[in-house]
Amino acid sequence: MKRTMQGLIMASILMIGAIGIASATLPEPQDPQMVANMSFEQRLQMSKSLREQFKQASPEERREYRQKLHAKFKALSPEERKSLRDKMHEQWQALSPEQKKELRDNRKALIAAMTPEERSEMKKERAEWMKAHPSEKEHWNKPMTN
Fold first, then answer.
1. Residue 33's closest CA among 65, 66, 79, 64?
2. Separation CA 126–CA 137 (nearest Å)
3. Nearest CA-CA partner of 49 in 110, 5, 129
4. Distance of CA 136 to CAs 42, 68, 129, 131, Å?
5. How many whole angstroms separate alpha carbon 95 and alpha carbon 101?
6. Lowest mean pLDDT among 1-15, 20-34, 37-51, 129-143
7. What is the DSSP string of the chain?
8. What per-residue confidence (pLDDT) applies to 143?
9. To 5 degrees, how large is the angle CA 70–CA 134–CA 128?
10. Does pTM top 0.70 for this prediction?
11. Residue ranges per domain, the chain?
12. Cα(111)–Cα(94) distance, rounded to whole angstroms?
């Protein structure tokens, strides 16, 4: 009886530990082309789920996730990136004002969940990207319209 109780307690501790570790790690970033083919509802659900996982993750895990995501974009050819950007832009234009607001609010909540250091790091990353791609600066600095 005593061994059975010890076994159950040990199994419980291991399960709790495994669940804690599993819930803290972020998933692999999705393929950008696959995300572009998702419906609005699918993308919104995915981003909400990711936001919840970001809340549980450490700053290092979030940084690693962003680096993996950037690597997936860099793996695409310039033509594929341009095609993907154009497709996402068309999809954005086709959204209703309510859907656009919902996506913006979700993005803002994702950023708000980050530490000030992470936000500063992302701002630096963006500035570096803008220096490397001066022709894109105008495009990305335009406000998103409804």
1. 79
2. 10
3. 110
4. 28, 22, 9, 9
5. 10
6. 1-15
7. -HHHHHHHHHHHHHHHHHHHHHHHSPPPPPPHHHHHTS-HHHHHHHHHHHHHHHHHS-HHHHHHHHHHHHHHHHHS-HHHHHHHHHHHHHHHHHS-HHHHHHHHHHHHHHHHTS-HHHHHHHHHHHHHHHHH-HHHHHHHHSPPP-
8. 60
9. 45
10. no
11. 2-141
12. 25
The tokens describing 113, both together, are 């969940």
N-term to C-term CA, the chain:
67
Encoded tokens for 134: 């001066």
The tokens 């600095």 sit on which residue? 141
